[in-house]
Write a structure and sequence with these properties.
Helices cover 82% and strands 0% of the residues. The protein is an all-alpha fold. The longest helix has 26 residues. The radius of gyration is 22 Å and the shape is elongated.
Length: 78
């Protein structure tokens, strides 16, 4: 319960912060690269998760899963 509340709070805070930055960038007198701002807002949580320890070696995981499947199939055929 406590962890769920914390995640909802952080997500809400991040969404409000991104919305505020977006509104400020639109109202600036000089033209701002809005697309770059949106992409950076979308990629920031992904980069933080990767730096925080998210496993990104997906090919090794798929290879080991396929190897396990083929080894169990070979054992069944014997």
């Amino acid at each position: 319960m406590k962890r769920s509340f914390k995640m909802i709070f952080i997500f809400s805070l991040y969404t409000l912060m991104c919305s505020g930055v977006f509104v400020v960038a639109i109202r600036e007198s000089t033209r701002q690269p809005i697309g770059l701002l949106v992409v950076s807002m979308a990629l920031t949580p992904v980069l933080v998760a990767i730096i925080g320890g998210l496993p990104v070696n997906l090919l090794k995981l798929k290879f080991s899963m396929m190897h396990d499947i083929s080894s169990t199939t070979n054992e069944e055929n014997k």
